[in-house]
Fold each of these.
Amino acid sequence: MIKLFKRAPARGSAIEAASPNYIALTDVGMKRDENQDSVLARPLPGGRLIVAVADGVGGSDDGAAASKAAIDCLYRAVRDANHPERALIDGYAQADEAVRRLGSGDRRPATTLVSAIIEGDRAWIANIGDSRAYLADGRHLRQLTEDHSWVAEQVRSGRMSEEEARQSQMRNVITRAIGTGESPSPDIIGPLALSARDTLMLCSDGLHGLVDEIEIGELLNGDYGEETAPRLIDLANEAGGHDNISVVLYRPA
């Protein structure tokens, strides 16, 4: 078994959880003073695992509180649940309510939330917002989730190219989020079969918005080991690091 993940990048980063087959790593980036991202990788009863990334919005304090509340609420909701898909749907509804309660007056904190429950060689993935889930299979990298953002909707409708979306000043405008009070149902993917060569990656837009998917794929499908996750953070910071950066990696043992 590969022993993974001893090193974190030098500036403003923290390894939140690590084991021989998963890591949750978050970094403040190069431009921000506070980290509004939250990450999760925690075992569940029955040999299952919950992993998640949340990217808070609404100002530094509100964004950080929103992402943490969503992560904590999701974990509590799925901890003892038996059906992964139902657990994720219920967990997202409870997270939405918890984040909504943080608001008052004109304050409307919110957060993205992408997560996965892994059970044996299968994964169930849920998403709201523009944090993403990817799967690397040893040869290719595939984006599993669809962004809930204004630019992504323009690209899907054919009104904007991928390159135009990357350069757009609207690229950070999300159209669905946890905390809106609308109890949005997440997109659900799964059960997704996982093989021994697969790597599941969850990340915030501080990573996928700055690092080319070709580079990400080369790292995840290449000489995978303890330097992989820190190197992804380094690449985002080398590209400017204008946002907080979070990544969770999982590879079957």
Amino acid sequence: MKRLVLVFTLAGVVAPGIAVRAATAATVCVGPGSGCFAQIQPAVTAAHEGDTIAVAAGTFAGGVTIDKSITLQGAGAHRTTISGGGPVVTIFRPTAPEGLHVSIDGVTITGGVNNTQPDVDVTFGGGVWIPTSQLDHPPFNGQGATVSISNSAITANVVTSSSFIPANTFCGKRACGFNTGGGIDNGGVLTLMNTRVTGNTAGSTPSLASAASDANAGGIDNRFASTLVVRQSVISGNRVIVNSPIANGAGDGGIGGDGALTVADSTVSDNVVEYTGSMDFEDQSAGSGGIGFGECHVCSPRPPVSIRNTVVSGNRVTAVNTNVNSTPAAFAGGIGAGAPALLDHVTLSDNVVHITGAGFAGADGGGLEVGAPVTLRDSMIARNSVSAEAPLGAIAFGGGIAMFGADLTLERTRVIGNSVSGTGAAAPLPLGGVSSVFGGGISNGGGIPPALLTLTDSVITANRLSASPGFVVGGGGVFTERGIVSTRTVIAGNKPDDCFGC
């Protein structure tokens, strides 16, 4: 098979006793050319550390495992396709996985269906799987390979499960199974540059039912102790769907996880989280349509999160529960922030949270749910919505932003045209309180320990509330039970009022 060797030799005067060693690198070709490998996996097997595998235009078989530090160079995302397998590409070696460095450029990774790895009831990564260095037990921590993916597309991959963990074992009284990372599951250090992660699914598809109770990260999962950097990329149209008989939770339509996260100059749009269930456990939920991070509250310290110059738009969270005794929740249409974060020049717009319950239902955070200290600078929170409907009572709040017991600082930020609605009986709720709708723009409190809300040079306007007769309604612009620290900020033109508690 063709192996083009490029030799670079040091020349010149060398001090006595210092050896001169030739550094070699090779290019191994894949494609129809003379002497080239027909498929990628044999080329990886033949390659050495530091080599480049040049893949020609065409479609090549997935199910590839990369266990060497190499560069995989395609002919362009529209010309070179790696298709099939479960996952399509795995980047891992058992010995010193953290020392593995892989670069992928100019390919499309598609058609992966992972329902077996690492197990039939716990599956990670439909398109690309970068395992952590510790695979033997949850939370599967320990840093894996360092990987860069550029000028590529990861699209139409699925992570699902073909079996579940029986009740009265791992998950207590209920059966369970977990699907994570429809497009990518990252357990290492991953950088995406000029790459599209689109149309991937975690959980069920219309033609493929999942046995899972919980699914997360339709686009990209980023594990605790891992690092994800997304630059000049698009994360769009990914889905998390949980609708099995043991359905418990769904989350993180576009990007999710607990690792260090940087997103810059990118778009996270039109991702969807869908939960449909009938169990009566109290913690059933759907959340974080666009981005969710820091949800592991026992993971310490929580890694840093930065989102800059990014649009998070058109993401949706929908939940339906058919059990009258259940108390389901839906939250965070755009971003669910469970770790300290800086959002700078971010647009959060047209994200949606909607829940329908057979008994009670609760929903919050159309644009953003704040579960850890968050600062927004020079940003826009616009036209996000929250709605909850249930015959026995509902609670809905935070059309633009819902503060969940954590501080929020807004600097030079506009909160405009967000909405909250509630439909159902005006009745006492199972967990306390009464049916209510509040915080069309921002909510802080309402049964949740109030935190510190600081507003500087900001505008909160044209937000609104609506509800069935008898609901408690207040804070069309801002609802707060702790007051606010406000400097040169306008709160005006909201309905039915501008501020409750200011």
Amino acid sequence: MSHPFKGSPTLPFNTQSQNPSAPIAKPDVHTDLANLPEPRKHYKWYYSTPPAAQEMDFPKESLHEFLRGYFHLKSGDWNGNNPFPLSAWSAPELQKLPYYYIMPLSSSMRDSVSLHMDSEDLSAVKAKSERWLNDKELDVYVQEWARTGFQGGLNWYRVVTDEGHMKDVELFAGKKIEVPLLFVSGKKDWGMFQEPGVVEKLESVCEKGCFRGVRIVEGAGHWVQQERSEEVVDIVRGFLGDVRREGISM
């Protein structure tokens, strides 16, 4: 849901004949992003930096305002979300994403959210989100993150952006999904397209017969299970019903 699985890792072959000390040249998209006319940076790598958690957490007095903006901008309610497939993992293509994904180079996530939210009518934002995340519900998130901070969640980004910390997943190299899979996403969710080609290759990361397609929910963004909860429940029930009639154990 919302973030497509891009497959298990692959292991390098013929390593015995290679010079292990020889550097492997890779395009540096982060340098390219920083050198754009409007310098940018990728949110996953920002979330991996030591200051990120504190910059998101403080000042606590405006945490509600920040989270209201963050949830709104990634939802189907924000008019700026009109996602489309990118042609390449390159700076010129990635810069087409909103600031909450490809941030201004010198900005924190709070700053990036503010850049979009400064032109939004907050009363209209709250009215739109009333059906799926009203202020009382949002306060649950605010109180918990004020208590715990964001570092626990951000540690995931520290791992996935550092290939040296991902050795354990090599145990699953070459493995494919062996149970029925249905991918569900909101139509206004950039998460489908932030890595070019991942949605298109979903069938190839599943064993034969396991991929059950893609379901796009109109009007929803990244929080599809909250924004369109009843429709998502219907989709999941239908999917599980089909699997059960086929006699497949999940």
Amino acid sequence: MGLTSGDTVLMHSSFNVHNGFQGGPQQVIDCILNIIGPCGNLLMVSMPYGGSSFAYLKDRPIFDVRRSTSRMGIISEIFRTDKNVLRSLSPSHPILAFGPKAEWIIADHEKTMYPCGSGSPFEKILKLKAKTLLFDMTSRGISTFFHHVEDTFKEHLPVKLYDDEPLEATVIDSHGNRIKVKSYVFSSEARRIRTPRLLKRELLRSEGITSSRIGNTKLTLVDLNKAVDCARKIVESGNYLYNEKSFTIAAVAKFGGGF
């Protein structure tokens, strides 16, 4: 599929023991680490909630970087418990990282009020020519990095991307210190209509997506720099990142149905 030694991989995963992979969740992690080797970096998202960042942050939660469970699947949670894996201090989009660049990748994530935007791990990994690996996930698994694409081209969206005011959470770091972290959350309009469908189509045209299978386990590899390039191509051609149907929905919501 093009995954090789030294790669930086942002992995999204689901796990079904009956889907064809002969091993458990830890063996999935071990396989990827064996491929990328000691010079590679393995990353996963580890959000401590299953809904939207708004629903999570509106109640001013306490996020404990050491103890808050990852709700992003069993593979992510097992990876989180490895003593050598680092976790960023963003309460809404914490990143797990292992590898020689792990510390640099997660550093100061809590200071980035737009957790997927400029200065975040999602921007940093582009400098490492990172790839996203979807293990038994649909293409919607691109969506976490898609948040960075949205942020990069937010002026080319049919709706505002963020709410006007940030929300605050308490974060407990690895030393037990408590800090207050503010984060902007995605607007209800963006949450309702966002779709990476146009981006996926352009990536397929540009050969930025590779797919394979292990039994019924679907594997998808996405070149993240190509994803940004494809998004730029879409907006430079005068289109929105969201498709026309999504824009129509947004217009109806904003102006009503009388047109």
